[in-house]
Design goal:
Blueprint: H1 9-21, H2 24-31, H3 35-49, E1 54-55, E2 62-63, H4 65-89, E3 97-101, H5 103-120, E4 126-130, E5 144-149, E6 157-163, E7 166-170, H6 172-175, E8 191-194, H7 199-208, E9 217-220, H8 222-230, E10 236-239, H9 244-249, E11 253-258, E12 263-268, H10 275-291
Parallel strand pairs: 3-4, 3-5, 8-9
Antiparallel strand pairs: 1-2, 5-12, 6-12, 7-10, 7-11
Helix pairs in contact: 1-2, 1-3, 1-4, 2-3, 5-8
């Protein structure tokens, strides 16, 4: 690395703080310096690089295309430094492990298994955020995300946890003797659907485009969707492995299935991992192998 040609660290830190905060005043507050000092550091950085990193033509500062590119690189670099320092010094040892996952995965798989983790690792603190939205993995914030997709999240490390096809299911009494060969055969039935964006809703949209809603849709939280399907309240899109026992027992019937090789992935940031994260990942992967009916790898 050519250390002599790198811009001064103080200037890079000031610019990264500006990109994160959105204004020189808030960036100065983050670094405990004046906003004038932030402005001076950014101007010095631009002079050093011979690039315009900030557009000053409007009332608010806006990053240029080159500024956005540099800000992303600094976010990764400073984030890796922060995580390494925390891990090496043990500064984050008492911080609970923060996990982001979807309501469906949490209700159908993760929460029923957690008693086994606590029994094996008493005293460990976890914070679980259940949201259909993709939460960023920031230093000091989310440590681990469990996301549904194809494993492609740029800048992050992804490892398959559960690969299983999505299926459309219903209780036998709902579908009766209807012969189902395509989605149009289901247009007269009531549907159960996650509120907002979810892995199931996205899959159904990709699978069929716009669905006929004339029969009615009941929107409810993902943790209630499986119970509603089992009770015969409507058709639902679910991950097959989550309802394999219901399928084998005859409580649910698979109406349509499409295996697109997607699944739930363990998503983490690159770099050193906290001891509690390493411990949880070992348990998580072992649990997925031992406790997931119908799991496909």
């Amino acid at each position: 690395m050519d250390w002599l040609n790198l811009p001064p660290l103080t200037a890079l830190r000031a610019f990264s703080a500006l990109a994160e905060a959105g204004s020189v005043v808030e960036a100065g507050a983050k670094l405990n310096v004046s906003h004038a000092a932030i402005s001076q550091q950014i101007k010095a950085l631009e002079d050093h690089m011979n690039l315009s990193l900030v557009d000053r033509s409007g009332r608010q500062l806006v990053l240029t295309a080159q500024g956005v590119e540099l800000a992303e690189a600094l976010k990764l670099g400073f984030g890796a430094i922060a995580r390494s320092v925390e891990a090496l010094t043990g500064a984050d040892a008492d911080r609970p492990l923060r996990i982001s996952t979807t309501p469906m995965l949490a209700a159908a798989w993760l929460m029923p298994q957690l008693s086994g983790f606590y029994a094996a690792h008493p005293g460990t603190s976890l914070t679980i955020s259940t949201t259909p939205e993709v939460e960023p993995l920031e230093p000091g914030e989310i440590d681990l995300a469990l996301r549904y997709g194809d494993g492609n999240w740029p800048g992050l490390e992804a490892e398959i946890l559960i690969r299983s096809p999505m299926v459309i299911v219903a209780a036998p009494q709902v579908i009766a003797e209807t012969d189902v060969t395509c989605l149009s055969d289901l247009r007269s039935f009531q549907w159960l659907e996650d509120v907002g964006t979810s892995e199931a809703n996205n899959w159904l949209r990709e699978f069929s485009g716009e669905r006929d809603r004339r029969a009615g849709v009941t929107q409810l939280p993902g943790n209630l969707l499986l119970d509603g399907a089992r009770d015969g309240q409507g058709l639902a899109v679910v991950v097959r492995s989550f309802v394999e026992a219901d399928i084998q027992a005859g409580r649910l019937r698979v109406l349509l299935e499409k295996d697109d090789a997607k699944g739930y992935y363990i998503v983490t940031r690159p770099g050193l991992r906290r001891p509690v994260l390493k411990t949880f990942l070992i348990w998580l992967k072992r649990c997925a192998k031992e406790c997931t009916p119908g799991r496909i790898i």
